[in-house]
Design a protein that fits this description.
The protein contains ten helices and twelve strands. With 327 residues, the protein is of the alpha+beta class. A five-stranded antiparallel β-sheet has the order 2-3-1-6-7.
Length: 327
């Protein structure tokens, strides 16, 4: 229930006082002699106290004041999500979000026309390490990235992480309401568009049924929006027709890396059983990604034009690990 007037505010404060006293009495009765019973009986009281405190904070403006301190807020909703949630659900979501920002930042940096815009991989990872604030009473996450512009060797570096986050949010907002604007207008580059939509689809996943929807709001957005299972379906449909004919994606295990000749072997499992091996060429800028992907499952996007007999090498323009990194 949302508090709408002073009468409801006073009533909620009284209910909170009663709930806190009941919880205190339960603790005095059951602790320290019966801790298991206390844990079982107190859970409902604790959830109720948090719920009432959240309603009061929202009414008196405390929540709005806290929200203004962070540019982006994300609320995870699900059948069992409140102020407590399995750690894996929260950590996997944040890891996927950060990895998406890193990947889009990396692509934008690699395709930048200015040679003096290059960042070391360690610097890029640091800039994509967002600050997180968890609001009490519900699983609401505040995010703020470090200032993207900084001096590296005396030169100003572009705000790659900030721009990457804006593009991911634009793709996510479009997937929640695809009728308002074409995704091609929001993200004209087809490769970058495919990359952004890949990570939007990851964020939309239900994670074993724990997440039913994800709300995005805050001053970083033009309008709030919500990702659902329908958003994931919209993204998957768009991705099927996103790449131009000369580009394709391949999934497999990276093997046999040759750092001198700048190529590696991608071991691809075939639907009918068995496997095939494709040689992938890469530019020097992707060497760190290739080394970090050895013996790991990746998605490679690249050019693969039929030339003569046999399968031609894949000219990789994007290399992405399919499992997010634990960093």
């Amino acid at each position: 229930m949302t508090i709408e007037n002073e009468l409801q505010y006073e009533s909620t404060k009284k209910a909170l006082d009663l709930a806190e006293k009941a919880l205190k009495a339960l603790r005095e009765e059951m602790l320290p002699g019966r801790p298991e019973e206390y844990e079982a009986f107190s859970e409902a009281y604790i959830d109720y106290v948090y719920k009432l405190r959240h309603e009061i904070d929202e009414y008196i403006g405390l929540q709005s004041a806290e929200e203004s301190a962070m540019p982006l807020w994300i609320r995870l909703r699900g059948p069992r999500i409140s102020d407590r949630v399995p750690m894996s659900v929260l950590s996997d979501f944040l890891k996927d979000l950060r990895y998406g920002v890193y990947q889009v930042s990396k692509y934008d940096m690699m395709t930048s026309k200015s040679e003096d815009r290059r960042l070391k991989d360690s610097e890029l990872r640091r800039l994509t390490n967002a600050k997180v604030k968890i609001m009490p009473g519900s699983l609401k996450i505040g995010l703020a990235f470090p200032p993207g512009q900084m001096l590296v060797d005396g030169k100003t570096v572009e705000d790659y992480p900030g721009d990457a986050m804006k593009k991911i949010l634009a793709g996510a907002s479009w997937s929640a309401d695809p009728g308002t604007e074409g995704i091609e207008d929001l993200l004209p580059n087809p490769v970058e568009r495919h990359l952004v939509l890949t990570h939007v689809e990851k964020l939309s996943r239900t994670r074993g049924g724990e997440i039913s929807s994800i709300e995005f709001r805050g001053k970083q957005l033009r309008k709030s929006f919500e990702l659902t299972n329908e958003s994931a379906r919209v993204v998957k449909k768009a991705m099927m027709k996103e790449l131009p004919p000369e580009l394709a994606t391949f999934e497999g295990i990276v093997r046999e890396v040759d750092l001198d000749e700048k190529h590696f072997t991608l071991r691809i499992s075939l639907p009918a059983g068995g496997e095939e091996r494709r040689q992938c060429q890469y530019d020097p800028e992707y060497e760190e990604d290739v080394k970090n992907s050895l013996d790991k499952r990746v998605k490679v996007m690249g050019e693969s034009r039929p030339v003569g007999i046999g399968k031609p090498p894949i000219k990789a323009i994007l290399i992405e690990q399919l499992e997010s990194e634990d960093e």
